[in-house]
Amino acid sequence: MSSLPSERSAQARSTGQSLKPSPFHKIQRLLKDCLNFFKPDVTRSSHAPLIQPRTLRRVLSLFVFFGAWQLLCIAKFNFFINFEFLPSPLEVFGATVQFFSSDPMQHIRASVIRVLTGFSIAAASGITLGILIGWFQQIEDLVFLPLELLRPIPAVAWIPLAILMFPNSEAGMIYITFIGAFFPILISTIRGVECTDLLLLRVGQCLGATQWYIFKDVVVPGALPSIASGLVIGMGNSWFCLVTAEILAGRYGVGYITWESYVTSNYPPIVMGMLMIGLMGAFSAYAVDRLTCLLMPWRVTKKQTL
């Protein structure tokens, strides 16, 4: 009489022999592996997905944006917003290919140098002056009101004075990008110093710290988050003012190409210039944000998920 399967398994285990898996067991194991693959990444910590959900959502948002734009241009949508004469993404892509097939670096280099020079001067002067205004009442009384009168003036209104004040157009263009970055950095720094926690100041005084050490070890670190926000906004504003700056006299620059295309009614390069300014502005603002985060290792932020 033949033995039962369970008896054969026990006998094989006792003798050290391995049972050959049946086709049913192979299929069962394959289905189990497939189900484990689609489970949430709780037990499979060593097998992270190739594309994170956050990255996938961001890429998907770009596809939705450009896809909707292309469909509206094809349909010549005209209800309050007219897409009939707006260049489509494919036309903008063609203008971009044509731009990069010539000599793009002379334009990109000129714009980057103007923005970085103006932003660097604005950051140095805005942070220094903002800390002094926020900490010393006498300096605020002497300086803040004239600066507050100049702050609402738009960058385009500075073009005539920039022509008159500076010996060449390059200095005037740098000045206008400086104006775009200076006031956000200044105001953010002032508010950051003024909003220093009073309890921290009292603790420093109780521990016998002098005014210099309170200023250096309490006020400045406490104002760093506001300063960082002002730097990010100021970098974006510098790129925002780039087209205005390069109206002055530029022969090179992304803003100059955008303005020249508008004068000649060549619309695809206009959108191309706008997107390039947005891309370079977003990248530079991200770089500033990452650099300022290195100065604040204690600042850890984590957003909640839906």
Order of helices and strands: HHHEEHHHHHHHHHH
What is the alpha-carbon Rg in Å?
31 Å
Question: What's the name of the CATH homologous superfamily of the largest domain?
Answer: MetI-like
Question: Class of the largest domain in CATH?
Answer: Mainly Alpha
Strand order in space, largest sheet: 1-2
Low-confidence stretches: 1-6, 40-46
In CATH, the topology of the largest domain is named: MetI-like fold
Number of strands: 2
The structural domain count equals: 2
How much helicity do the residues have? over 70%
Helix/strand-derived category reads mainly alpha
Quick one: biggest sheet? Answer: 2 strands, antiparallel
- Measured by DSSP, the beta-strand proportion falls in under 5%
Please give the structural blueprint.
Layout: H1 5-15, H2 23-37, H3 53-74, E1 78-79, E2 81-82, H4 89-100, H5 104-135, H6 137-150, H7 159-165, H8 169-194, H9 198-206, H10 211-240, H11 242-246, H12 254-263, H13 267-294
Antiparallel strand pairs: 1-2
Helix pairs in contact: 4-13, 5-6, 5-8, 5-10, 5-12, 7-8, 8-10, 9-10, 10-13, 12-13
Description:
The protein folds into two domains: 56-82; 92-294, MetI-like fold (Orthogonal Bundle), CATH 1.10.3720.10. It has 306 residues and is an all-alpha fold. The chain has helices spanning 5-15, 23-37, 53-74, 89-100, 104-135, 137-150, 159-165, 169-194, 198-206, 211-240, 242-246, 254-263, 267-294; strands at 78-79, 81-82. A two-stranded antiparallel sheet has the order 1-2. Helix content is 72%, strand content 1%. The model is unreliable at 1-6 and 40-46 (pLDDT under 50). The chain is built from 13 helices and two strands. The radius of gyration is 31 Å and the shape is flat.
